[in-house]
Amino acid sequence: NRLRPKALAPPWWEYFHFRLIQVLVDSETNLTLAPFSNTHFQIPISTTPVNQNQNQNQNPSKYVIAFRDTIAQKDSRSQDYKLDLRVIRNSLHTSSRFHIAVQAVQSIVHNYGPSDIWLAGHSLGSAIALTIERDMVIKMGIHLETYLFNPPFASLPIEKIKNEKLKHGIRFAHSVVKAGLAAAVKSQRPESPHKSDHFTILSEWVPYLFVNPSDPICSEYVGYFQHREKMVAIGAEEIERIATQNSIRSIISTAIGNDSEPSHLLPSAFVTVNSSPSPDFKRAHGIDQWWKPDLQCNFKLYQF
């Protein structure tokens, strides 16, 4: 939301030889989604891939489509806050901003091919990127390399509990309840055959998640993936297989006849956790934490 010479983003993409080629605008609200973030960047020459897990000989993307976080400015915050609520209600896919973003992504994929394109986003922007790519994987079989910074996880912040035994007990009970409710609803309202396959289809796509355990917005991803491993270790794999695909909200929605799939639940991901001290919410949630030179991280691949 800054213009040159105060803009912070341009020096970063220019350093890596990217150039801005388009800014997306939400036509319904006449809001610029992000002057220097909700954009396509074109790269004219090769650079070193940012992904540590990639083969160093692999070519980086030629295009990055990045989506910004909520901006607390008077002319945009009300619309952004409404989208934040849509994330919680799992209805982001019904917003005008989502449809504009989908059209932009599909257009550039059609013109240049999926192998040359990366998606990226921070917080609300990562929720948009995740929902777009999830939809494209299921409906079109298109896998775009996706980087999600502080992606929202719509759930109670169980990860904030310090007592590990209590935390695991709550997660175990939560999984049992979800699996039981999902089975009960399925017996009364059989889900569509396509819906039951979606999680399996998504398991072949591995997005890159960057999360901070001190950030209540994204910290549940840490526990979500770790808990799956613990459930397998104690022999409760079948319970967790059902529970990990459902949220309480999606189960209730299905029970009343409205099919709903929680878009934030992922079968597979390469998760990077910031283990550096984060004394307050601003530091734990801010995008700037990920480019600090003294950043301490742990990372792990989780596969369904």
Automatic annotation (TrEMBL):
Pfam families: Lipase_3. This is GDSL esterase/lipase At4g10955-like. It comes from the Eukaryota. The keyword Transport does not apply. GO terms for biological process: lipid metabolic process. The keyword Hydrolase applies. Residues 102-137 form the Fungal lipase-type domain. Keywords: Hydrolase. One of its GO terms (molecular function) is hydrolase activity.
